[in-house]
Every structure is written in C-alpha cells, then in structure tokens.
Prior knowledge:
This protein is of the alpha+beta class. The chain folds into 4 domains: 1-201, tricorn interacting facor f3 domain (Immunoglobulin-like); 204-295, Zincin-like, CATH 3.30.2010; 301-447, Neutral Protease, domain 2, CATH 1.10.390; 461-604, Serine Threonine Protein Phosphatase 5, Tetratricopeptide repeat, CATH 1.25.40. It contains 18 helices and 21 strands. It has helices at 222-228, 232-242, 286-293, 310-328, 331-353, 378-394, 396-410, 417-430, 434-437, 442-447, 461-476, 492-505, 513-523, 531-544, 550-559, 563-576, 578-588, 594-603, and strands spanning 12-24, 29-40, 47-52, 55-61, 70-72, 81-86, 97-106, 113-116, 128-131, 151-161, 165-168, 171-177, 181-193, 199-202, 205-210, 213-217, 252-255, 264-265, 270-273, 301-303, 413-415. The strands form 5 sheets. Strands 4-7-2-1-10-13-12 form a 7-stranded mixed beta sheet, with no helix packed on it. The protein has a 5-stranded mixed beta sheet with strand order 15-16-17-19-18, covered by helices on one side. Helix 3 (286-293) crosses helix 4 (310-328), helix 11 (461-476) packs across helix 12 (492-505) and helix 14 packs antiparallel against helix 15 (550-559). It is globular, with a radius of gyration of 25 Å. It starts with 11 loop residues before the first strand and ends with a helix. The relative contact order is 0.08. Bound molecules: zinc ion (ZN). Zinc ion binds at residues 290, 294, 313, 316.
Amino acid sequence: MDPSSLSNPQECKVTSLNLVLSVNFEKSQLQGYVEVASQIVKEGTESLILDTNQLEISHCNDVTSNPINFKLSEEHKVFGKALIISIPEGLRSVGKEFIVRVYYNTTVDSNALQWLTKDQTAGKLHPYLFSQCQAIHARSLVPCQDSPSNKVKYQAEITVPKPLTALMSALSTGKTESTDSSVFTFTQEIPIPTYLIAIVVGDLESRVIGPRSKVWSEPSMVAAAEYEFANTEKFIAVGEDLLTPYVWGRYDILLLPPSFPYGGMENPLLTFVTPTLLAGDRSLEGVVAHEIAHSWCGNLVTNKYWSEFFLNEGFTVFVERKILGRLYGEEMFDFEAMNGLKHLHDDVDLFTHKHQEELTALIPNLNGIDPDDAFSSVPYEKGFNLLCYLQSLVGVADFEAWLKSYISKFSYQSIVATQMKDYFIEYFTEKGKSEQISVVNWNDWFNKPGMPIEQVVFVSPAAKVAKDLAEITWIKDQGVNATKDDIKSFKTQQIILFLDTLIHSTSEKPLSVDVLEKMDSLYGFTDVVNSEYKFRWQTLCLHSGLKRIEPKVVEFLISQGRMKFVRPLYRELNKVNPELAKSTFNKYKSQYHIIASKMVAKDLGL
Length: 606
Ligand SMILES: [Zn+2]
C-alpha cells in the first residue's frame, strides 16, 4: 500500500485514462471529463477508488451514459479526498474491465496548475497554463490512482482558445480547428506513473534542435533556446550507449516562462526547464543531462513509493554524472560528486538541526507526510554515493554492465529498493563476485540516518584549483596577486565551486567591500548572464554589505521565480535591507508561482 495515496490499485487497477478537457482561462479551470479504464485484480471488489484534491466532481457515467454511484470521502489535508465509485455487480470478478466517465472541473486551488495572466508571460499578449504533478499533485488535475506504484497509458483531447497551442507529455496525434478554438489530441502508449502527466497551453513556437528533438517556448525566447540546447542529441546518445535504446520516440524541451519554480521536470517526451538556463554560452546545458537520464531512471524504472525516491534520483544523478564525464572528461564525475557531497552535508545538518534526522535515511518513513516536505538532496546524493560504493566493489566496467542489465530488467515496472538489492546480489553472485559484495551493509545503507556509512574518495585536481583560488588568492591574500587570467580557462563548474567556496568560507568573516570591488573589476561578475554565477555573486555582495548590488538583486528577483534562487536571495536581502526585501516581494508576489510565493512569504515572516 502506498501511504501517499488513498486509491486502491491492489483491488481494482486503473490501466488507462482518456482526458477530454477544455481550457477556460477566464475561470482558470479545466472542464470536461476523464474516462477511466480499470481492471479488477481482487475478487469481489465493490469500488474503484481514485485520488482527488481540490476538484469539483459533478457526476459519473458508464460508457452508455447510465449514471454510476459515487461518493467523496472526508478531506485529508495533505492527500485530498478519495473518490469512491461503485462497480456494477456483474463486473466485480478478477479480470473484468470497468470503464467509468468522471465529469469534473479543476478549481483555482488545484495546485498542479499554474495559470499565468498575459502580463506574467514574456510576450504579454496571451495567457499561459502549465502543470507540475510531482510528487502528489496529479490528483488535482485529474481523478486518478495517484501512486507511482501504478502505471497507466493515457490519451487526451484538449480544447484551447485560438491561437494557443497545447502540448502534453505524450505524442501529439493531431489538431483540428473551429472558429475560435483548436482541439489538440495526444496519446501516451507507454504506461507511466501519474506524476508524469503534464500539460502546457500558451503562445508556443518550436525549433528543431536534433533528429528527435525540438525546443518549444514563447516566440521571444525560442531562438535563444535553440542555441542553448543544441547539444541535446549528444546527451541522449551517451545515455543510450550507457543504458538501453531510448524508447519514448521524441525528446523535446519546453522552456517555461520565468515564474517556473523549479530547474527542470522530466515529463516524458517533453522535459520542462526554467529559462534561467539561458546563459547565452551553453554553460548550463548540463542540467539537461539530468532530465535526459530520467528517461530511464524514474520514467522507465520507477520508485514504487515516494519513500524509495532514491531509485529515481540517486540513479539519475549517477547516470547524469557518467554522461557529463564522457562528454567533458572523466574528472567531471568526481568533481560533481564532491560538490554533491557538500550539499548532502548541508542538508543532513539542516534536518538534524530541525530534529527531523529520520528524514535523512535513504528510505525514510513517509506515513502521513507530504513527500514535498521531505524533499532534500538525500535521495539524490546519498543514493548516488551508494551506487559509487557498489561500483568500487565490483569495478567500473562490471558495474556499468549491471546497470544496463538492471534497466532492461525493470523497465516499465515500479520497484522497491530490495528488488534492486536482490538483483545486484544475484547478478554478481553469478559473476563469481559474491565475496566482494558480501561486505555491503544494506540495512544501514537503506535505513540509517545521516551521512553515507561508507565513503568513496573522489579526486579532482580541477576542484583543487578552484578552491585554492578562493581560499589562498582571495581569502588569505585578499586578492593582491589576482589577475584577469585566473578564471579564463575555468569550466562552469569551477567558477561555481570558486564562488561557493567563498560564500561558505567567509560566512563568519565576510570579504571587505574593497576586495569584492577588485574581484569584480577583474572577473566582471556583476554583469554576468549565467544565473548560477549571478546568484552566488549577489549573495556574496549582500553578505559583505556592497550596497550598489541591491538594485541588481531586485532586478534578478523580479525577472524570474525559480525557488533555488529567489528564496535564499530574499532571505539575504531581508537581512541587510528588510524594507527593500518586503516591498519588492509585496509588489511582485503575484508574478511568482503559488508555491514559491508561499515559501518566500514564510521566509520573510509575512
Ligand atoms: Zn531528477
């Protein structure tokens, strides 16, 4: 049983959804019905139970329009309401198919959906809609069995006002037009967990960026996006080489409006990304490697429950770093691993400080907990470290062969960690390596809170160069020997590490304003486009009290709404100029995604 869902796939399993919806921008609603096909898996099951959250259900019919009885449960504040639909008596035996149409509409409180007004878009001419269903928000878009343990196919028929375009995490199968609206149809033939259902509606244009890829965005950003993501096919090709053939057909990228609160979301066939990746020089294209790695880890082999999230994210980070290593030099794997370990350290400290240490176990107990509240780098980085440790026991070549085999064995399934463990043991016992792997303390790896129990040592000379520049040239020697050429040959990750090291190592004793001015005159950080540099540089300046950075910070805060940047920057600005932080937020809060504006308000004590 999935503790994050109220539904009953273990009794009556949903196999496909057919969404027939129209998009109403005036009311900020999706309206229509979903046809749910299900199959009885437990003899005598009387009801099909679906998850819903903040939906208005009007009625249920069978396919011949006869009414079907249903009721809604009491509301659970995190998991929503169960929609309990009576299965007709003749259809309650194992193997029988039950099809029901649920007529409903979403509401303004459906938190999977963000409705943007014209003014909140880049073009300012048309409204815009996008969804974010992970982890448990699909139930506020469509009544469904909203558990990653159950995979479904889906079709959709979406009516939108002209001249807007609809896209989904599915193959596009056509478009028909009437006087003032267009109908877009889609099909997703590969069963997916419901958190991967995605929709976007807006003034969208596309450019071809590869043999199976297009990039989509509002017209004003499409040329920049085309340039930035031109290397996408290389990442997919390395992924295929490492793992198995790419099965989804297309791999498109959707560049969202600036208020998209996340970095990226691996919706199948259509990765969603933030426009803060537009650096103008492809220096942030590596983020796409992560989303591409999800095409196998997560989207094909899926965590059965959210407590096993490391099966999605730990594996994805591992594959992402393998891809980056192959494309940018093997050292990049260790370099990124070292950075990741630092983030893991920070999060373990943070959760321990909040007395939530149990959430730092690789498989935490999420009973009654919103998976979003447990979110941290733990499943990503601790999961990654487990795989590095296992790799160190059996050797790189054999581990990569196992990984390929693991993906092909568990593709199209939802699994738990013990299945992964059992397959690892089975595979390497057969290969005569049972002694090497007998040392693994699986129980502690999976269940013990805190840092990884075994630590693989990562080595990166490039990281040392970046750290030395921060610690010796700038912190110790105050920049007296610094020159313009210091960072000329640095890779993106080195500049990020350089700035991170400065931030961390000067948190007690900030650099002086004079030192920062010198750094800026040599490296030109104030005017960079790269959002990762800008975010760190502004943090550093606020911390040192460099007043002239404040208007630049405001400019950055109101130009995008990615939580990774806006939350910490508002907090820093609030420390040095609370009036400016609060007035800026109050003036622009409607521009942010609802989740982001709630979080920032909390951070600012509003
Ligand atoms: Zn991910």
